[in-house]
Design brief:
The complex is a heterodimer of chains A (286) and B (507).
Chain A: E1 35-39, E2 41-45, E3 62-66, H1 76-79, E4 94-98, E5 100-101, E6 112-118, E7 136-140, E8 153-157, E9 187-193, E10 197-198, E11 212-213, E12 226-227, E13 230-238, E14 246-247, E15 256-260, H2 265-276
Antiparallel strand pairs in A: 1-6, 2-3, 3-4, 4-15, 5-14, 6-13, 7-15, 8-9, 9-13, 10-11, 10-12
Chain B: H1 7-17, E1 79-82, H2 89-95, E2 101-104, E3 107-109, E4 113-115, E5 121-124, E6 130-133, E7 140-145, E8 150-158, E9 163-168, E10 171-181, E11 186-191, E12 194-204, E13 209-214, E14 221-229, E15 233-238, E16 244-247, E17 250-252, E18 256-261, E19 274-277, E20 280-282, H3 294-297, E21 301-306, E22 312-314, E23 317-321, E24 324-329, E25 331-334, H4 350-353, E26 371-374, E27 380-382, E28 385-389, E29 392-396, E30 409-411, E31 418-419, H5 423-426, H6 445-449
Parallel strand pairs in B: 1-2, 2-5, 3-6, 4-7, 5-8, 6-8, 7-9, 8-10, 9-11, 10-12, 11-13, 12-14, 13-15, 14-16, 14-17, 15-18, 16-19, 17-20, 18-21, 19-22, 20-23, 21-24, 22-27, 23-28, 24-29, 27-30, 29-31
Antiparallel strand pairs in B: 25-26
The chains are: A mainly beta (286), B mainly beta (507).
């Protein structure tokens, strides 16, 4: 039957932790409330204002999207109101992930980032609260030595439903006929889903006792009682031969991403209120 | 029988025939070029002499619906004037109650207005002089969010980073006497909305489409007397149809004119049952436009039914196209989100389809390196006048499925060339066809290998000057007219084949 595709791909490998996981987020857009932002690459830098604050040049190489003034400096007041590489001019937040490298170690330049903001799976849309200004989050495990759960980190092709734990070959094959070049190349896409429950107190918190975590079966735990939008970041790259790809943080299994809420806070609050709280699909992406 | 082959067989056939890559409709993968560094919306003053309404709040400043400005008493007549009663359109809208009329005086308004209240009528006093200007900073001129029955009349929206006028999940909508130019997705856009009318409207310079109705079945929508030029597509509708009628309209000098289409990237597939009658469609081979998505796929065609079903295309005047005048063609979708609906699912209403339990789809069904082919079934092309087409006046083609099994029919058209040749004999609308389908058959691989001209940036593309089109009658005194009970029934039988354009482009 025509319908969404949820959870099928996850069934094979299952979650890596004992935590009960919600279904994969994929399938056609239009059934779940969302607002979206599309951004170009802003800059590449060996900086990480969350993990290595005030230590410029000490990080693995990151690709930054959104706010154009992000460095290792975690000072919110310095970057609020900066310009953005996003189409939505009020989104001056920062999104970053380790650079993707080809087999020779060269950077595979991303073509764009799409940020999907939605209620977490099964979470009552009316209860979602905006991120507090300055909230910092990390999703995925930079130190992973094995595949991560597809619900958090996945590779796919464009906006399609394919979700794999290693980058798939997204180049369309034509039965061995190399003469037929696609007019418009598709993309290799990295999907990262962020936690959707907040502890109502801290703006950041690495390691044990993180300030954010994932909802389970549509509910935020008592320790992290505030449902916040689930950010799903999708970074597109040219469809390349996936063999030999790695990330600046290690193998492709180390995929992770960071988000710093430097949105124009009023604009963010408006989108949460009029789109998510009212359960509306305010836009769809390519 | 069409339904006899399995999904996998169809997919495999598609993979064998050819593979290449397409961008899904609704927003392509071209870069969203950086806008110039721009001031924050809040400090953007109106460029021309605007009335007091230059305060230009970003949408985010909208107070909650219930917080009407305390200073303003609710008017007894339900008319809320901008800027006399409220300095901004947003404040007037937020204060308004269902049934009210928001009346906007001439001026330039740097606003992105969000509407969440049912049955408002939002009206400019002068179509051409009430101008909402997003200045490439703000997203949508007027965005109607799940509110039913909101009508927008007699105004212009330009330079928005997303859409000019945008209805989301509305039951009842109407756009009348509106102009939209240089907006980065669509000029006038109704998404997941039903029971609406778009009429006496103009849209130019949008990369995706000037006019778009998407994700509804049945849509119950009427597009009447609209004019789209210099867009990627004049009209586009993904997964829409069902009492959706496009009449008496003009689409010229877009990349492609009218394109109903299907795809699994949004809900409610396939696109089906749009009726396209009495339109003038010409010169849609214009490289000097912005473009996204399907606009490139359909470049150089007047009317393309892209993988949609049971559409009716009659009595249209179609001429001067680089590729095809009217093409009934497949849409090969890369990176699908689902498999094709079976034939017994083709008439399932959108509201039912979207709620059905999700199919379990194994990874083999969604392989990365091929695509899903939406073939066009049971479309009717009759009594059109088609001329001056580069490739063929009429094209009928399947992809993976033999064209003769699609059930499309052609009759009574005035035309010179077709692919395959002698199409009206092969596929008549009454009786059995005969002939050889292989003569001059269209090769569908060219759909995915065709290289359209490069897009032009939407902010800087040269466009015809804004036409000074007639506005509504007596906007100051006409009563509020919320969008309820729409659309009125249309007698399409009396619509004649047009003989010349309705509008003359200044471009």
């Amino acid at each position: 039957m025509a319908g969404l595709v949820l959870g099928a791909c996850a069934a094979d490998d299952g979650p890596t932790s004992t935590e009960e996981r919600d279904p994969l987020r994929n399938g056609p857009q239009g059934n779940v409330a969302q607002f979206i932002v599309e951004c170009e690459l802003s800059h590449l830098a060996y900086d990480d204002p969350i993990v290595l604050p005030d230590l410029p040049g000490e990080s693995h190489l990151h690709q930054f999207f959104g706010n154009v003034d992000i460095t290792a400096d975690p000072d919110y007041d310095r970057v609020i109101g900066s310009d953005t590489s996003c189409e939505r001019r009020s989104d001056t937040a920062s999104y970053w992930a380790p650079a993707l490298l080809d087999e020779t170690g060269d950077v595979v330049m991303p073509t764009k980032l799409t940020a999907y903001y939605r209620p977490g799976p099964g979470v009552d849309p009316a209860t979602i609260e905006p991120y507090p200004a300055g909230l910092m989050m990390v999703a995925g495990d930079a130190g992973a030595d094995d595949e991560q759960p597809l619900e958090i980190v996945a590779w796919g092709c464009g906006t399609g439903s394919v979700r794999e734990q290693r980058p798939p070959d997204c180049r369309i094959q034509f039965d061995g006929d190399t003469e037929l070049e696609p007019t418009t190349p598709t993309s290799l896409r990295l999907w990262i889903s962020f936690p959707d429950c907040w502890d109502d107190t801290r703006l950041s918190g690495l390691g044990s006792g993180a300030h954010v975590r994932y909802s389970e079966a549509g509910t935020c735990a008592e320790s992290h009682p505030v449902p916040i939008p689930q950010l799903q970041m999708a970074i597109d790259f040219p469809a390349v031969d996936p063999s030999g790809l790695s990330l600046a943080s290690g193998g492709t299994e180390t995929a992770h991403a960071d988000f710093w809420n430097v949105w124009d806070q009023e604009a963010l609050e408006n989108e949460v209120r009029v789109c998510l709280n009212r359960d509306l699909v305010c836009g769809v992406s390519s | 029988m069409i339904g006899s082959d399995t999904k996998k067989a169809r997919r495999a056939a598609a993979a064998l025939i050819g593979a290449a890559v397409l961008v899904a409709a609704c927003g392509g993968s071209d870069d969203s070029s950086d806008s110039t560094a721009a001031p924050s919306a809040a400090e953007a003053p109106a460029e021309t002499e605007a009335p007091a309404a230059t305060e230009a709040p970003a949408a985010s400043e909208a107070p909650a619906e219930t917080e009407a400005p305390a200073a303003t008493e609710a008017p007894s007549d339900g008319v809320r004037s901008v800027p006399d009663d409220y300095p901004t359109i947003q404040e007037a809208v937020d204060a308004a109650a269902p049934g009210d009329l928001v009346l906007i005086a001439p001026g330039v308004y740097n606003e992105a207005v969000d509407v969440s209240t049912d049955e408002l009528t939002i009206r400019g006093l002068d179509r051409n002089e009430v101008v909402l200007d997003g200045e490439f900073e703000l997203e949508n001129g007027i965005r109607i969010l799940g509110a039913s029955g909101v009508a927008v009349e007699n105004m212009t929206a330009i330079n928005y980073t997303v859409n000019g006028f945008y209805w989301i999940q509305a039951d009842g909508y109407r756009a009348s006497y509106v102009t939209a130019q240089r907006n980065n997705d669509y000029g006038i856009y109704a998404f997941d909305s039903v029971n609406g009318v778009i009429e006496h409207a103009y849209a130019a310079g949008s990369p995706d489409a000037g006019f778009y109705i998407g994700q509804c079945y049945p849509c119950n929508a009427l597009v009447d007397d609209v004019w789209g030029e210099y867009n990627g597509l004049g009209y586009s509708g993904t997964n829409s149809g069902g009492n959706l009628t496009i009449i008496n309209s003009q689409f010229n000098d877009n990349r492609a004119g009218i394109v109903p289409n299907s795809g699994s990237y949004e809900l409610c597939y396939p696109g089906r049952e749009s009726t396209v009658i009495g339109n003038v469609v010409f010169g849609n081979s214009n490289p000097d436009t912005p473009s996204k998505g399907l606009a490139d796929l359909a470049y150089g065609t007047g009317i393309t039914v892209a993988g949609a079903h049971r559409n009716v295309v009659e009595r249209n005047l179609v001429y001067d196209h680089e590729r095809a005048g009217i093409a009934i063609a497949p849409f090969p979708e890369e990176n699908p989100n689902d498999d094709l609906p079976e034939q017994d699912e083709w008439e399932v209403p959108c509201e039912v389809q979207r709620e059905e339990p999700l199919a379990e789809v194994t990874p083999e069904d969604l392989v990365a390196d091929t695509y899903l082919v939406w073939n066009p079934y049971f479309n009717r092309v009759a009594d059109n006048s088609i001329a001056e087409s580069g490739l063929a006046d009429m094209v009928n083609s399947g992809f993976g499925t033999p064209t003769e099994e699609l059930g499309n029919c052609f009759a009574g058209n005035t035309f010179t060339t077709s692919q395959p040749a002698d199409l009206e004999t092969l596929a008549p609308c009454e009786g059995e066809g005969s002939g050889d389908w292989t003569v001059d058959a269209f090769d569908p691989i060219q759909i995915v290998t065709y290289e359209p001209p490069a897009p032009v940036d939407y902010q800087t593309v040269e466009l015809p000057p804004l036409p000074q089109l007639p506005g509504m009658d007596d906007p100051e005194n006409a009563p509020a007219s919320p969008a309820v009970g729409l659309p009125a029934a249309v007698e399409t039988g009396s619509i004649a084949l047009p003989t010349e354009p309705f509008y003359s482009s200044a471009g």
